[in-house]
Design goal:
118 residues, alpha+beta, Nuclear Transport Factor 2, Chain: A, three-stranded antiparallel beta sheet, two-stranded antiparallel sheet, 2 helices, 5 strands, 29% strand, globular, IraD/Gp25-like
């Protein structure tokens, strides 16, 4: 059983569960939006993506961020998912991240899009 993210209770008052596909998407979101140093027992967990908020927007920064995010996803989720591509866009006050990946168990390609106000 995989716990749903964010944690919540289901209709029976138990911990809500997520299927494998939703669980992988939840894990990707956690890696993307967790800052290194945020988790006490895993100080290197995360991607540092939110630091983009404080940097000037440029093509070089977007490229560097894509490499950093893809590396973090490979490091923390490499045994669960095959990351094919990561796209990072910064538009006005929104940060858009698109992750293209393959679920190894089923060989299904998936695309997850995330957006956060910065």
């Amino acid at each position: 059983m995989n716990l749903d993210f964010p944690f919540r209770c289901d209709a029976q008052g138990r911990s809500a569960a997520a299927d494998d596909e939703k669980h992988v998407r939840d894990l990707i979101e956690q890696v993307l939006f967790t800052a290194p140093g945020e988790r006490v027992n895993r100080p290197t967990f995360g991607s540092g993506l939110m630091q983009l908020v404080f940097a000037p927007n440029s093509d070089a920064l977007a490229a560097a961020t894509q490499v950093t995010v893809q590396g973090a996803l490979q490091q923390w989720l490499g045994d669960l998912v095959q990351i094919e591509a990561v796209e990072v866009r910064h538009e006005d006050a929104m940060l858009h991240v698109t992750v293209h990946y393959v679920l190894p168990r089923t060989q299904q390609r998936r695309v997850a899009e995330f957006g956060r106000a910065v």
